[in-house]
Amino acid sequence: MLTQRKRLSSGLTATSKVFVRSRNGTATKIVREHYLRDDIPCYSKLCNKCHDLLKPNAQGELPVFVLSETPLKIKEFGSHYILLDTNIILHAIDLLENPDCFYDVIIPQTVLDEVKNRSFPIYQRIRALVKADQKRFVVFHNEFSESTYVSRHKDETINDRNDRAIRRCAEWFQKHLNKDNSNSKINIIFLCNDKDNRNKAISEGVIAKSLNEYIDALPNADDLRDLVPTENESFDKTTSSREMSYPEYYSNSRIMGGIKNGTLYQGILNVSSYNFLEASVQTQAFKKPLLIIGTKNLNRAFNGDSVIVELLPKDKWREPSTTIIEESNVDVGDNPDEEADNQEGGSGIISDKERRVLAQEALKVTSGSEENIQKRLQPTAKVVGIVRRSWRYYVGQIAPTSVSLENDSGNASKTCFVILMDKLLPKIRIRTRKAKELLGQRIVVAVDSWQSTSRYPQGHFVRCLGEIESAEAETEALLLEHDVEYRPFAKNVLDCLPSEGSEWKVPENLNNGDPQLARRKDLRDKLVCSIDPPGCVDIDDALHAKQLPNGNYEVGVHIADVTHFVKPNTALDNEGAARGTSVYLVDKRIDMLPMLLGTNLCSLKPYVERFAFSVIWELDDNANIVNVDYMKSIIKSREAFSYEQAQIRIDDANQNDELTQSMRILLKLSKKLKQKRLDAGALNLASPEVKVHMDSETSDPGEVEIKKLLETNSLVEEFMLFANISVARKIYDAYPQTAMLRRHAAPPSTNFETLNEMLRVRKSGMNISLESSKALADSLDRCNDPKDPYFNTLLRIMSTRCMMAAEYFPSGSYGYPDFRHYGLAVDIYTHFTSPIRRYCDVVAHRQLAGAIGYENLDLSHRDKNKMELIVKNINKRHRNAQFAGRASIEYYVGQVMRNNESEQEGYIIKCFNNGIVVLVPKFGVEGLIKLDMLGDADTASYNEDTFELTFTDFSGNNRKLGVFDKVSVYVKSIKDEVSGKRKAQLILK
């Protein structure tokens, strides 16, 4: 990129940025104009020059000057403003948000752009700080200021140019603010954790400090030091003689070359739930996942990291582990101040304890035919690079064994371990002065680095959530663990809606001069009702049906018209897009959009008029579509039913009013729609879903029950599916490249290999067919055990875990055959029916409005690249919401079981060398029963061909347990002393 400058008559300076882009062997020269200004203010209230320079805009407004005329004054730096480098924001955003430090802060535009490119969530948080009045953060547009813009030198990297631009900005501020202000000098403190960049700044006359140096100079330094991220150095400075090292990651050039020539592969690392020393990476080059075995081969990768792996020789390929290995059992008592001794030819990766565990695994008595061993063999690999870290805020507790309880003198930082709630992740080494105070507390930590010379990653304390097992701390913990945004909506978001106290109503006159209102169809005469779970207040769908004179049926699905209030590119829309979905916990709901919208303005409550987006079909008696129409409408719901209330009304022969007849028509047609789906191969899978009843007065969990589904549940589901399919076809016809759709890929046959082998061996040759979704559905129907009615449900639960996850996508990303939704057995599908709680549906509404000519579609939903960004975020948010909901149920089920220990039926779903996993349908929980709780470990043997574990129990009896066996277990809730989480403990009877 080359840059040229020229002075314009207007006084602006234009720089021409010249790029050369190469595609398909041809070079294209691209020239872009970049205009520089001489009137960009410094935003300091001390600067009269900038005040005098500026003129009011068309509204008579001047830029707001927020940098204080009385900034913080400390002995070492005097009165000063702070100018931040990118690395400070990325690694210390929680410290910047702290109310006890960091006021009068300048963020160069160069820094803000870098943050946006590297972490959009952190970018949003820093923007929120800029918008807040209290902290006095400002963005200075140095890239458009003639005084601070710097051109890129020949052979200079982009990073080096950006570093120079930031230093230039700091230098300009120092000179600018003190040129005519000798009486009250203001220093600019450039905060940067890059030592080389700091040294360059100092040589250029800029006061540059590291974050540690700045915090140490503050009067409240003792309270803040724990929040400072660790720099790229080991905590332990005294272990050079015992130094350990992981393999260094490959260089970028070696990685690029390896991927190109097919010797290296990229994928997401998934750590085994039962063996923290084993992980897998799925790649397109291999049918089976690549196994990553052992700490050295995992090479500092976290679960969820995007990694580069290199294949190991075939003689090192092996079967997946059949042994349960938990980090908490291997590394108990490790000293946080010391690294492991040198081992394995100087690599020092595997500790003595870990080596013993691996040796025990190798000595376990297993049996199986050579043919089956070869069949189970998988390629193995090692991690040689990290493409993208999955690091986020983590929740855990300080390991008591890593904290000395003796009275230590002084107030120095102590090194200790934090055991994370997520057992798939390693413990984090932190320094804190509050280690003893924080014992027994849920705390939040951030990971700063993982050096090749450190056995454990290094991080820092962020904040305390509260006492372990308190409902508030555990709920906030699970929200943080699943990256759910739960903070209150900002004022600028709420300002996009009518005020809370005002009563918004549908205008009485549709012809009041508003062309969009005039296009709405008046459907207030339709017998519309809603059917939802009990207590539902955010009602986003309603239905109606009636028989037509020709014998056919008119059926309408009416969806809350959220997009009437949520306009594209507003603060409200941006917030909804960022959150992606509402999150439903046992005791609360975390809204995607403000409550006023979901429970009032848009909610299709009964007896009030509401705006809706309606899909109305004419269906024949076999539920075939004769005609379909889409319209923005006005409706007035007649009633809001719970599923049970609707079912009772439909079943009551004495009820024959028009509304009841309407619901009976809906039920009749829904059964035909469902049968058509099943005939086409739609899957009827299952999950161990339970419902926790909460005490209405105390909010304490009462009892757990398996969710019961009524015919009215299916009624609503079928018509929501029907509407989603119809809308998908309509928006795809209108926007073939950017239609918001949802797909579900067919599972690869390898996903079902183990389950099918279990069925063949354990259930007399039963088999799940995978030729098509129809074949799979039919084979599941055939897999029945006359002696055990629950077996078929259990098999459907286990089959669900072998399926691929459904995902949102813009239609231009795949060919039409890949649009297919395997589970629903339809060729095209979207989500349209819940715009209050899903952002996908908001986009689908806008696209449908554009498709029917109601309003023009915003560019953000017509641009393929922007749609890719939208779906990437909502896919992530959707998954996180599901995991958070399940974690909430798990927590409250654990609380229920504390006071309700009982004997229950369970089913073995996994067997290992040293234990079994049992599913308890009553509570929807799985529990691990280790071999040392079953009997004599020395007598145990595991047959991998028959999935059976044989051992001698404590009474001296020989026992044999296998997959699918029904067992009786005593269920109670215990607190895991390592992670602090409450979990189900199962004791085999």
TrEMBL record:
UniProt cofactor(s): Mg(2+)
Domain of life: Eukaryota
GO cellular component, one term: nuclear exosome (RNase complex)
CDD domains referenced in this protein's UniProt entry, alphabetically: PIN_Rrp44-like
Gene Ontology biological process: exonucleolytic trimming to generate mature 3'-end of 5.8S rRNA from tricistronic rRNA transcript (SSU-rRNA, 5.8S rRNA, LSU-rRNA); mRNA processing; nonfunctional rRNA decay; nuclear mRNA surveillance of mRNA 3'-end processing; nuclear polyadenylation-dependent CUT catabolic process; nuclear polyadenylation-dependent rRNA catabolic process; regulatory ncRNA 3'-end processing; TRAMP-dependent tRNA surveillance pathway
Annotated compartments: Cytoplasm; Nucleus, Nucleolus
Spans annotated as Disordered: 328-348
Pfam family name, one: Rrp44_S1
Protein name (database record): Ribosomal RNA-processing protein 44
Provenance organism: Hyphopichia burtonii NRRL Y-1933
Lineage of the organism: Eukaryota, Fungi, Dikarya, Ascomycota, Saccharomycotina
